[in-house]
Amino acid sequence: MDAVDEVKSRLSIEDVIGEYVSLKRAGRSYKAISPFTNERTPSFIVSPEKQIWKDFSSGKGGSMFDFVMEVEGVDFKGALELLANKAGIDLASYRSSSGKSKGPNKDKLYAALEASAKFYQVQFSKNKVALDYVLNKRKFSKDTALLWRLGYSPNNGSALISYLKKLGFSEQDMKLAGLTSTGYRGGIQDMFRGRLMVPLEDTYGKVIGFTARLLEANDNAPKYINTPSTVLYDKSRHVYGLDKAKESIRKNNYAVLVEGNLDVIASHQAGVKSAIATAGTALTEMQLKILGRLTNDVRLSFDSDRAGIAATERAIPLASKAKVSISIINIPAGKDPDELIRRDPKLWQAAVNQNVYAIDWLIERYSALLDLASGKGKRDFSDVILPTLARLSDPVEQDHYITKIAELINVDKSALTRKLSGEEIESTSPKKRIKTEPAKLDMATVEHVKTQDKFLSLLLSRKTLREFLDHVINSSMLPTADGRELFEYLKANPDYDFKDGSELQKLEDYGKIESLLYDELYQGLDLNDLHEETERLEAELVTKFVKTEKDKLKISLNSGASQQGLRALQEKDKQLNDLLRQVKGVNHG
What share of the chain has pLDDT > 90, as a percent? Predict the structure, then answer.
């Protein structure tokens, strides 16, 4: 991972842009008034899921780096320095004296972790204690154990080290991957010994670490241990199971956040495949923001013990900061989802569907704990609830709960309002001044680029429209270099299956912009409408191209051309007229 990727992994595009413009949630995206034009209606879109922005009024768009370059008036290096500073990244650590990138070989670390996962899986298949725990006690099927790559770490202290050395990995590789620890008498030993191994995978399914569960009772050892922080694994950002849950989260538009990795596995086996988990109960704002890129509905099911309840209460203000809606899943029987699932999987699905909005849950909880008839009880109750209400961005919702609480504890609503106004409210920070004022744009050029982008968004997102690649348009008719390159790529790869531009390499961000454009303008239209729109855009592009070329011909004619040159210009004019008739024939014939 280079410095650019590190910045992208640490910062969210909505946070970066939100320092300059006021963003408002609109489904999975955010909208705002364009900072680049004088428009009055929101047409500036930020997609947390794609980590991209698009300004429909000016035609601009790109990554967080492109935005900072635009608003701060700096080049890419300047934008990288500003964002690296914001992310707490020392750029010097990414450069050696020769100017080349330095640091651990992450591909080597990924390979070591993948080899370790396979090693643990083989050991698991031979260990009766681990098999009994997984298949009999936890009631996981063999297919489930294989899907989640459950394993076992031998207890001799150096089994994994010996195996990895045979594969050519060095002790330094193992240490950097978090696979070894320092032994009691010095030297290194396996980090995990005699434990059930649960691989931790990133959103692409690459192994980045492990959670290891004790299988035999030992009061001197923790039940769970995790891979320590490494260049690949950061527990404050990792969401367990997201690689397998993200499609279900998108489809169902909610995420189920449970406390343990094995609860996630049990939930998926029971059919609730939107389940994910964090490292213990230490939920972070960044993890909620990562989930917020997929859904605004996050449902919590932490353990009903003291630690789980405390974690749930901490999550409520974090959710407000992360701009996601938190609700609570009440387990009707049993301490955790796994126990409920083993009793009856249908009970778990029912509990997920009967979630309680977090503030209502908080009110119900403290109504039962405190004496609301006493002055002290009323004060303590309002002390707990009002800080959460202070962070609500919707005034209607805030007023609803103030009214509800006033009735519940039998006090005047104005008293609560006065107390609320005195709360430490985390107000929206003042927006940074944008250094570039709204530009006087060449609207003809802007409209030309908009037409190109709409045309390409349709071809990129719908394979059935790629017949237009072989009509009258060619790349020279498109106004931008990115547009021409994407057109040529699609023409050379007509069966390309677009997935957020991952295979487009340097065109990745442009591909994401085009995908966002399609989602905003054309999602849900039937194929006939899309075909007609593509024809219309094709005609506009050809007409603009012909007009531009004819203007060039006029200039050449007026400058005085030789007889031979005149014939060439006349032939060119004929070709342009034929081209214009051709596109009109395609679209209106």
Answer: 32
